[in-house]
Specification:
The structure holds two protein chains of two kinds. By secondary structure, chain A is α/β, with parallel strands linked by helices. Chain A is 44% helix and 12% strand. Chain B is built from nine helices and five strands. Classes of the chains: A alpha/beta, B alpha/beta.
């Protein structure tokens, strides 16, 4: 049997990859990086790097970067809530998750964006649980009915209760780490269990060009020490906060991510790190940051290729759109992104459900995107040899008028070789008219109502629920508030 | 004075083409030739930035041309200003603005665009930079006697500090003293209304228009 080829796409030649990395090293060594966080600067200083306490600039030499790369694990392992299902983040494994931290939701009934509520976040978490092509969940919405001071921890509080999948999240304040860590440890059964079987990834975004803020560097340090993987989300905007050329932006991207990686390794050698990003081909007409632009996807694929060359797990914000409704643009940008990310072998692909420049989630789009991700998985599954010979023996005894529908071989393989979409329309015209001439978004809406109506939430057990509530209440009280929205928990 | 007209036209062109070196050289020549500086500004440089704005609005110019034009304007004004500070104030100053990216946020591209365009359009702009403490905005605004405070935020998290600044102004009994404009990627008109800001500009040019509208109604000479 011939081994199945895993289809792959690469945009850069090997010398080009090496040139970009080399320039990134030189950039960090000569120009340096702005590190706002004093603890991080102290770590650099201890490692012998020139740090300037006035300009807050740190120069990082090649040896320290290479040494830090050496210390970074090739793969990250994530676990579900029960600590049973293991996901390898690395090699060419692909895991899709909903795009995170939307400040708006597209309301299907009105077709208008509106501020999301806790109830929306619960629905999103439950839908994510039901979508077989999302291996991870994310803290995808910032609920507007929650006091702002606890906006970060509260998203995690909801996600952990209503969805059992590993979770991609992040901090809005340095004080958010403690309650979020406590919640994760509570679910895992202690800090050591959490370190051994991490359940969450924390995103940390440097500010382009070449700056690590106080909060984001602190997130790297705290996560490294707790054994929680940090996802480095460099996000240059071509021609605005990074060079306008794609290759120039890549140099900066790699430099920013490497600086973050070094911080992680200085905080705790061997800390899990994911080489990610959310750059964009900046639109010079509108001043916007299109995630659906082909150039954005090209930058993503290229830095991921560089991450792989550096033997790191990778991440990208792909498979999302800038459309404001679930129209053709929403489908085409999401479809292209998801397929290209899968072909590039990017390990964590965040974006499902997201539209309007990473600002808006749509629950209908989330279900449509689940189907897109299924197609992407099918694609990278490749074409397999199922039989030896492939066809010859099956033709023996077949006459000219024969058909294949009744062959046992057909019945054996058709569900394996082919996927059957739940939402894409494959009806005849008449059948489609007969069923009410629906659009894909309308079908997605019906489906989500059915899923939410027919399934019960996959909740944590009640003792753990109480523990999480206590942590959340304490955090809220520390933030000076007692008000938490009621939850639809039985 | 044909040669003066030619010089004025060259000033306009320098701004339209974003040629900063030419704009500075022409401003220096205006000083050396002792031209009427009021005319230099009103008929030379201002039509340039106006043209840039028109070309941007008609979709011909994109952000790089828009911002280069604004930077030329600022550079030329910097050359003229020392020699002509008083008159310049009368002729060209539209109002005083304190601008910055709010506490917790070190993104400053959007803020820089707005600062640049405001300055190019005759506002006296004090740019406090990024990650500016709330109290610092208020101190600076009081210190310079600002008409407007412009707050930028790129992150959904730091955007919340825009509300806090307005609350802080109220606490200190200063809310009526300054108009507060908000902007930044996650900010919306609705957000501006919710937090009681005086206005929201969706882009740099909109911010300038809003500032002109809300700024002190001084008659341009």
């Amino acid at each position: 049997m011939i081994r199945t080829l895993r289809p792959k796409a690469e945009l850069l030649s090997r010398p080009f990859v090496e040139k970009i990395i080399d320039e990134a090293f030189l950039l960090l060594g000569r120009h340096g990086v702005f590190v706002e966080n004093a603890e991080a600067r102290a770590l650099f200083k201890e490692a012998g790097m020139p740090t300037d306490e006035t300009s807050l600039k740190v120069l990082i030499n090649r040896k320290l970067i290479e040494d830090s790369l050496e210390a970074t694990p090739l793969t990250v392992r994530l676990y579900d809530r029960a600590g049973e299902k293991e996901y390898v983040v690395g090699h060419d494994e692909v895991h899709f998750d909903p795009g995170s931290a939307a400040v708006k939701i597209l309301d299907h009934a009105t077709q208008q964006e509106r501020p999301p509520l806790t109830a929306d976040l619960v629905r999103l978490a439950r839908l994510t649980e039901s979508c077989e092509n999302f291996h991870f969940q994310s803290t995808a919405l910032i609920a507007s009915d929650v006091p702002e001071i606890i906006a970060d921890s509260y998203r995690l509080f909801i996600g952990l209760q209503f969805c059992s999948k590993p979770i991609v999240t992040g901090l809005f304040r340095t004080a958010g780490f403690r309650p979020m860590f406590e919640m994760l440890a509570a679910v895992c059964g202690g800090a050591e269990e959490l370190r051994r079987k991490p359940l969450a990834i924390f995103d940390a975004c440097p500010s382009p060009p070449l700056k690590w803020s106080h909060l984001t560097a602190q997130s790297l340090i705290d996560c490294a020490r707790a054994g929680i993987p940090s996802e480095l989300i460099s996000m240059g905007l071509t021609g605005a906060t990074s060079l306008v050329t794609l290759a120039g932006t890549l140099v900066q991207h790699v430099a920013e991510n490497l600086a973050g990686l070094v911080i992680c390794q200085l905080a705790r050698r061997g800390a899990p790190v994911i080489f990610g990003g959310s750059p964009a081909g900046f639109d010079m007409r509108k001043g916007t940051t299109p995630m659906g632009a082909i150039e954005t996807m090209m930058i993503d694929m290229a830095y991921a290729q560089i991450g792989k060359y550096l033997k790191l797990p990778t991440h990208a914000y792909m498979g999302l759109s800038d459309a404001k409704i679930n129209d053709s643009q929403a489908g085409l940008e999401t479809g292209m992104g998801a397929v290209l990310a899968a072909l590039a072998g990017i390990n964590v692909v965040s974006g499902a459900g997201m539209m309007d420049f990473e600002s808006t989630q749509s629950l209908e789009k989330l279900l449509i995107d689940n189907e897109i991700c299924g197609m992407a998985y099918r694609l990278i599954g490749g074409i397999a040899q199922r039989d030896e010979p492939l066809a010859l023996r099956l033709f023996e005894g077949l006459g000219p008028e024969s058909q294949f529908l009744t062959l046992p071989h057909t019945r054996k393989w058709y569900r394996v070789e082919h996927m059957f979409p739940a939402l894409a329309d494959r009806d005849t015209y008449e059948a489609w008219v007969g069923q009410g001439r629906t659009s894909m978004a309308e079908r997605a809406h019906d489906r989500l109502e059915r899923i939410l109506g027919e399934t019960s939430p996959n909740l944590v057990e009640s003792a753990l629920q109480k523990e999480l509530q206590a942590i959340m209440r304490n955090d809220a009280r520390d933030g000076g508030t007692d008000v938490l929205p009621g939850l639809p928990i039985g | 004075m044909e040669s003066t007209d030619r010089l004025l036209a060259a000033m306009t062109a320098a701004v339209v083409e974003g040629d900063r070196a030419a704009a500075e050289a022409l401003a220096a020549k205006a000083l050396a030739d002792a031209l009427d500086l009021h005319e230099v500004i009103e008929r030379g440089f201002i039509p340039g930035i106006q043209k840039v704005g028109e070309l941007w609005e008609s979709g011909e110019y994109f952000l790089p041309e828009l911002i280069s034009g604004a930077e030329c304007m600022k550079a030329a004004m910097a050359v003229l200003k020392p020699a002509f500070a008083a008159a310049l104030t009368e002729a060209f100053r539209r109002g005083k603005v304190v601008i910055g990216t709010i506490e917790g946020d070190i993104h400053d591209i959007g803020k820089n665009l707005v600062a640049s365009m405001l300055s190019a359009n005759g506002f006296d702009v004090l740019d406090l930079g990024a990650d500016v403490k709330l109290a610092r905005f208020i101190e600076a605004a009081e210190g310079m006697g600002a008409d407007l405070i412009c707050l930028s935020a790129l992150l959904t998290t730091t955007m919340l500090n825009q509300r806090r600044l307005i609350e802080l102004l109220k606490e200190r009994g200063l809310r009526g003293r300054f108009k507060v404009l908000v902007g930044g990627a996650p900010v919306s008109r609705k957000w501006a209304a919710d937090i009681g800001a005086d206005g929201y500009g969706e882009n740099a040019l909109a911010a300038v228009k809003l500032a002109v509208e809300l700024g002190p109604k001084r008659r341009l000479a």
